[in-house]
Amino acid sequence: MRHLLISVMVLVFCAGRAGGQAALPNEVVATNAATATNSPSPTSETEVEHPWAFSASVYTYLVPDSREYVQPTLTADYRALHLEARYNYENLDTCSLWVGYNFSVGEKLVLEFKPMVGGVLGNTTGIAPGYRFLLSYWKLELASEGEYVFNTRESTDSFFYNWSELSISPLDWLRVGVAIQRTKLYQSEFDIQRGFLAGFAYKKMSFTAYIFNPDASEPTLVLGVGLEF
Question: Is the C-alpha dihedral spanning 173, 179, 184, 187 positive or negative?
């Protein structure tokens, strides 16, 4: 009888331990793993998206037998929206403000196109539809910008302006090519001026030198500095 009572007491004690003991270490790991899987991971620090892109450029014109001048341009892009401001572009002491649409297509052969419309104020006053165009493949680039200014003061002074470049970049920092321009900003014996360009890039800055009408006795020199930010 005593042995029976001892056996019963042992069984009760073991049952109590089995029902109330803590989980084993491997069970704790499994539980934590399940919890970690089901719970959201902590938010990691990511780079804040900046949809705005800005650029600034300044071109210095060294024109023989004419006034030397500086031509600055500022641009701002927000996704499909393009904004631009120019000074001394359509005429001296004249500014123009632009709004346009950014369009891009392609991967290896990339086409970027910006149709724009602008208002011109200063020595020349008018309305101008225009464009910016860039076609790139491998190390080659064909770039062009143009506008037709409808002069609201004198319709006979309406005019088409154009600047185009064809260049190749044999090195990441070097660009060489040819350029043409058609402008009424200063007097020239050539209706369309042709020339050569050489450009250098360093980080987000670029430096470009142009020589127009190289066969003339006094060619026109243009020095440009650009910055993207």
Answer: positive
Residue type, position 148, single letter: Y
- pLDDT digits (tens), the chain, 229 positions: 444 344 444 444 444 444 443 344 444 444 444 444 444 444 444 445 779 999 999 999 999 988 899 999 999 999 999 999 999 999 999 999 999 999 999 999 999 999 999 999 999 999 999 999 999 999 999 999 999 999 999 988 999 999 999 999 999 999 999 999 999 888 777 789 999 999 999 999 999 999 999 999 999 999 999 999 9
Q: Which residues of 202-226 are buried (b: 16+ CB within 10 A; e: fewer)?
A: eeeebebebebbeeeeebbbbebeb
Measure the CA dihedral 180/185/186/190, to 10°. 30
Would you state the torsion angle of the CA atoms of residues 206, 212, 217, 221, taken in this order, to the nearest 10 degrees?
-30
Instruction: Give phi and psi for 37, each to the nearest 5.
Output: -70, -40
User: pTM for this structure?
Assistant: 0.77
Q: CA 181, CA 211: separation in Å to the nearest integer?
A: 11
Backbone dihedral angles phi then psi of residue 26, each to the nearest 5 degrees: -65, -30
Taken in order of first residue, the domains within the chain and their CATH numbers are 52-228 (2.40.160.40)
- CA pair distance 22, 180, nearest whole angstrom: 84
Sequence-ordered strand ranges (E) for 20-125: 52-62, 69-78, 81-87, 94-101, 103-105, 109-122
